[in-house]
Structures
1.
Amino acid sequence: VEDLKSQLGFLRESEVKDIIEEGKKQAAQIIAEAHTKADEMKKREIEQIRANIGEIEIRELEAAKSEQKRRMMNLKIQLIEAAFAASLDTLKQMVNEQVLIYRNSLESLIVEATSQMTGSQFEVILSSKDAEFVRKKLKRIEQEISTIRNISITLGISNEPLRSIGGVVVRSSDGKQVFNNTLEARLAKVRQENLPEIAKILFEGTDA
Amino acid sequence: VINLSVEDIKELVAKEKENEAELKKAQDEASHIIEEARKEAKAILSDVQVPSYFKTLHEQEIKRVEEKKSTWEMECNRALENLKSKAGENVQKTVDYVIKLIFGA
């Protein structure tokens, strides 16, 4: 009987040990799986955050680049405006000082205007100071235009004041045609036709 | 063949009952161990989103982007200053060119 009891005791101990071991084994597996799953979740979250951060970087830098382009463009426009303002100041100074290049240009400004108009009788509007100078050359200018146009041309000096810093306005005697060859008009034309070359000179030596 | 007395049989039955109780206790203990492991697993999974860790990572990245942006902006400001300076140097040449075009020289 004692042997039997002893055997039963032994079997019980062995079975109890197995049950506890199996429980521990399952518990360890549950924990290990949780760790693995946690690592995967963490990795996914990090990838997600990195992707988001990458987007932030792209967005932030793109915005900064656009802002920089805008600032660069605005500065270029300002500098071009300043260059044209300086050109206008120089023209005013040339007119006030009646420099030779300006005085000599008056004749060609009148010739250029009348050459592109029809009719034979014109009046020239210019400043009183310029009128004084042109009046002396009027006959010669008439002859020059007559030769170019191959008709007899008559020119007169208008008493109307010139609303400009300088240059001329030529008007047909019937008032139907007007050619604005003032310095402001010429400056605007030069700007319109030559802006890329002008900007190239202004920004020479830069990456712009 | 074993000859067992009634007393022996009673003793053996009592022993068997004791065994069953012990086994039941062992099973309860094993279940308890597994249940605790499940709780721990749940805690591990809920701890995955460590805010400070992600916050730090995010802040570091934001700081890096800001630094990069700041460096880039400084370079751009230098480019703007250079543009202004060069245009200042070239303005007279530009005016001369414009005047030349106006008078057709």
Note: Chain B has a mean pLDDT of 88.
2.
Amino acid sequence: MIQVALTRPFAWRLLPLVLVATGLFAVVVPLAHHLDARSRAVVAARERGERVAHLLGDAARDRPLLWRYDAAELAGRLQQDALLGAPVVVRDRENRPVPLGGPTASSVAWARVPVEVDGVPVATVWSGAPLGPLRAESLRLLAGCLVLAAVLGTFLFLFPVRTVARAEERIAALLAERRVALQDEERRRIARELHDGAGQALTAARLQLLALRKRGLAPEDAAQVNTTSTRPSTRCGGRPRPSSPRRWPRSAFSARSASTARATRVRPGWTSPSMHPRSCRSYPNRWPPTSTASSRKRFTTLSATPAPSGPRSG
Amino acid sequence: MRRTLALLLASAACAGDPPPPPPSTASAVLAPRPDVLAAGTGAMTPVAIALAREIASRPGLRVHVEPSIGSGGGIAATRDGAVDLGLVSRPLRPEEAAGLERLDLARDAVVLATAADFPLDDLSSAEIHRLYRGEMRGVTLLLRDEAESANAALESALPGLADERRHSATTGRFRVLDHSAAMALALATTPRAVGVFSFASVRPPLRALRLDGVAPSGEALAHGTWPAVRTLGVVFRPERRDRVAPFLALATSERGRALIRSLGYLPLEPRR
């Protein structure tokens, strides 16, 4: 199996994105809710303060001197209108407190409303919105969003990573299949070249040797003639020809020539890949049959030497 | 820049306004007015009005009596100099007594008042407890606010009644009234209603119920047989003693005591 390292880098790149996205979700949603609820609480407190200020304005208009001392009357009217359910602080023009009762809270968002009688300020109302319940609600929402973000983040992380892992397995399998196919194709090509090149040359040499014997030459002369006549078997027609250098870099050529050498005990050499004849390009796997000795001399860049050793494969 | 400013404004809107500053500790006293002003508990208001009318028949000083603002309001207004005389129907707390002088003028009988349609003329202590617990059917109890001195007077005579009243007030089953005038109106207009009231202020169609067989009267008050009693008085700043001296002199005089007695109160010997 070919190892394709895709899943781990993808996971490392995806993890910060998922953490940022889920973290933003877990923080921004409760924060936005808290700010919105606080803003609405302040608006409600301001509306309540305006109603309190209206009542106090009426009282101050009726009794300009003593309105602030009639706490029972003021508190009763505010209670009757359900305006004392939240903290209310009233100060007169000299910043002296007007005791009205009502609840107190440690954490309050205030809305300040002036009390005016005929355009003259007589007091100031601070209407408060307790933040304790709001904070508790926001904390509950934060906890829920954290849990939801954890679940969503897990899915957002695992689903793509598992998909990439499956794709990685598939790519590895396809590469393995392709490698086997390429190996088979290479074996078949080498076998075909051996069959079509060296085998034919040997057969021709044998036939020539038999013919010379029939002519009555001595075995030694026949051997001399055979040596001369077998030279074509070492020509380029009998050698595996590498593919186009434009398609095959030198490293690929070396790997291929090595396999060829193992198969044929003939090691092709490579010195100048830019000197291939035009006629070679139409015969991808062998020298053209019309190549002559003179033309072979021109292309001295390719040479074949017997491989020193090595088992034949294929 | 504009966006930043908008964000800052939005943040400020979310945060609300600054909290109220610490209250002023300066004890600025308002300048006195030409007329003597008196304000405070509604139980004392009839006495103050009667004395003011008597003073008005003489040349010189004029006394103006404001509608009820409660004993606490009268004390605070006197301390601030907003009024010259504070009308009170309860003892002063230590923090209230600083810088003020008090003069007790009368005693007031606190009764349970009702209209003519109330089926009973007499209530026992047990029935009053049942009434305050909401266990007496066919009767509407009207309550006064927590600061009302009549509550304390009645509850001093009936131990345990204070807790029952507070519990009933929290249930929301009974109306809570803030002034004597509001109580009088509610008693007259609410069917079978009963509520705590000043005996001196009981006028038809209202009537006062007997308590454990004892009828409220000046004699019962004088003999000490009526259990629910509160003391009425006035408070004033020492530096304004000269301004209120004619009023105090009249209130402690025989004429003044006769006026107080005629209103249904029990006049007291002056004690400072």
Note: Chain B is about 40% helix and 20% strand.
